[in-house]
Structures are given as C-alpha cells and as structure tokens.
Amino acid sequence: MTEEGKKFRAAITATAHFLPDKVITNADLERLVDTSDGWIRSRTGISERRFLPEDEPTSTMAIAVAQELLARREIDPDDIDLIIVATITPDMIFPATACLVQHAIGASGVWAYDLSAACSGFVFAVATGAQFIESGAHRRVMVIGADKMSSILDFEDRTTCVLFGDGAGGVLLERGEDEAGLIDFELYADGAAVECLHIKGGGSLYPPSHETVDQRMHYIRQEGRTVFRFAVEKMAEVSASLLERNGLTGADLKLFVPHQANKRIIDAAAQRMDLPPEKVMMNIDRYANTTAATIPIALAEAADQGRLERGDLVLMTGVGGGLTWGSTLFRWGD
Ligand code: UT7
Prior knowledge:
alpha/beta; Peroxisomal Thiolase, Chain A, domain 1; five-stranded mixed β-sheet; binds oxa(dethia)-CoA
C-alpha cells in the first residue's frame, strides 16, 4: 500500500522473546556427530544453541512470548484483534499453533492463524499483520515467530543438525500515533528450488508411513552450498533495494536485523550496505538458526539493550525455505 493509501501506521509497541534454558554447545554436538567446534564456529559463527525439552512443543515458547507482550504493554488479552504465528514446526499439522496461543492467553473475540515461510516467516508475518492495522480493520495485532527446530533435526546428518536451535520472539503492532511504524516492505517467493531446503515427508505428498520414517523423510534437508549462495545474494539485494527505493542508504539506518543463519551471510550483506558492526544485530553465536524466531529474538534483544530510540530506522531481512526472502523497514516508536 502506498503511503497515501494508508489510513494508519502500524507501529511496533512491544517486543518479547523466549529461549529455552537448556544450552547445547558445539562440544555437546561433537559427541553426537562427526563435527568439531572449530568447523562450526569458522563456517557459521555458531558457538551454542538452546533446545526445548523433548516433551514441550513450539506453542510453549509462543505462549510465553504472547504473555510477555501483554505484560509489557499492560493490556488485556481481549485487547488483541489478531494473532499470527510464523512457524514451520507447528505443534500439529492442524489446528494452527496460533489458535493454541489464543486459547492459552485467554483472548476472546480474536482470530488467529499460522503463516509458513520458513526463515522469512517473521518478515512475511509482520508485513501481513501491518496491513490490518494500516487499513483500519484492526487496532492490535500480535505477530510471533516460533520454531522448535530440534524436533525436525536428523542427528545423523552433520551438515544440518549443527546449524539450528529453538526459540521464539514477537512484537505487538498497533495504530501508530505519529511517524513511527512500517514504512515499506519487499517480499518474494520462488518455488523452483524446493529441493534445496525442505522436509519431504509427513505431508500429503508423502503421508507418514513406515517407509517415510525408515527413509528419515520427516527431517529437514538442506543443500548448504546452494542455499548459502542464494542467501548471500538475496539478503544483500533485497535489503539494498528497499533502502534505495525509499531514498535511503545504510548510513541512514540505526540497526540492521538480519535472519541469523550464518555469520558469513550477514557479514556479506552488511558489507554491501556499508554497515559498521555496531549497526548489525548478531546473536547467531548464542542461539544458532531458530528459523522464524531469529529476527524477533534479535529485535527484542536490541530493544532490551536500549539500542533503539524514537525515530530510528530498523531494517529486518529474512531468507529461507520456499525459497522465500524479504525485508521490512520500520521507524521506531517509544
Ligand atoms: O536459514 C535458512 C537458510 N539457510 C542458510 O542460509 C544456510 C546456508 N548454508 C550455509 O550456511 C553453509 O553452506 C553451511 C554452514 C551449511 C555449510 O558451510 P559450507 O562452507 O558451505 O560447507 P560445505 O557444505 O561446502 O562443506 C564443506 C566441507 C564438506 O567436506 P568436503 O566435501 O569438503 O570433504 C562437508 O562434508 O565440510 C564438511 N562438513 C562438515 N564438517 C564438519 C559439513 N558439515 C560439517 C560439520 N562438521 N557439521
């Protein structure tokens, strides 16, 4: 929607994040697969990640984030109009994990749905949620990114199991009172390269069977090099493009909050935008790739650290399965 077409601005009025207590270090993974702390650190920037207990689902983390958002904003669950959860690890195939969040926080008169765009999930969801605010349809939308990646990792596949972690983060979107809010977004999808990042089994194409389980088809598979090249290109391209079309450069940004898949991908994008390290949010060393949760966790940490002030420009960029990629540009509020 053009600036002129917007009735209202969709401002981020609260952030929250949740990380499980259990820390899994690279040394812990050395005991499971043929890998090394040195390889993981040098190729990805990851030192450790968090895993949720096996018997707890993704909704545990999403609910914690939802409750924290309500507490921080000091509002009632009934004040929410819509809950969107971006995830590729829903508790169940259906119903949506967002419905479980709605019930757990006791929000009535609200609607809720999941959005599946893998590592781009949060930027897709936040841009989607903002449309309901900008059009005037809703006053408050909760947008959460949550993934329990440990539930879909094959600990016999060293090329992927070392890359991911569990976590959740989210924001509250509300009608902005002033200039604060979503300025612009660019989002893309290209399904031509499905094979390079996916879970093949368990859906309607290959419903669960002894055979799909024997073939370990319910685990995430990734062609690392192909996705790496794609991510380096697209993260830099879409970030630079969104800035350019708004007449901005990296110098105008306060903070770049990229998807945390690989430190080398983030460094390449930051270099292309000429961003010094202090303008780039990086926490992949501690949490690894939490898929839809990396960006809202990083944003919430930045906000908690006091790195964002009224009027600051924040660019969030995701790249992931689909393939999907995209960027959102916000002006920070109070
Ligand atoms: O969030 C969704 C989007 N995902 C991404 O953005 C991830 C993109 N891809 C990547 O980040 C990188 O491609 C990886 C981190 C997955 C891999 O790094 P790489 O530098 O592309 O390594 P590679 O796949 O080219 O593998 C290099 C070597 C191989 O050995 P050979 O064939 O050279 O002998 C692998 O077998 O490293 C080996 N290797 C490992 N060694 C120790 C692969 N995984 C491991 C491991 N530990 N865990």
